């Protein structure tokens, strides 16, 4: 296996993982680009490259190139992890765009969980209502801060 093919496979897998992170949002309109999720995909791709290189070490002919590839993978992992933990590139709009899918996950799980206890169901319903309201508020703030017309928050949030 060539190193170029290996890293190409890792790159494609990283992009696929990034896209898959949105599969658990409640509604399609809750999918916003998230720098945080992009950094998470990057460190997952780096981590996957480290594991795969270690598992397939004997398949690569050059020890020197393998060590260099491992160093690149560790560096990518460390960069992604640092960026996720520091949130260094995340401003107020990026933060809201990351929070909308996050809140949407709470709606999905609270809506679809098999909850029979009335107290737990009341809590889940409260979470659904709160998350929808907060999504609508964030969408209105994003529109306003990006220079668009600041629409009034949609009460049902999607």
Automatic annotation (TrEMBL):
Entry keyword Transmembrane helix: yes
Which keywords are on file for this protein? Membrane, Transmembrane, Transmembrane helix
- Outline the extent of the DUF305 domain: 94-144
Pfam families per the record? Answer: DUF305
Membrane spanning residue stretches: 6-28, 40-60, 66-84
What is this protein's record name?
A: DUF305 domain-containing protein
Q: Which organism is it from?
A: Paracoccus angustae
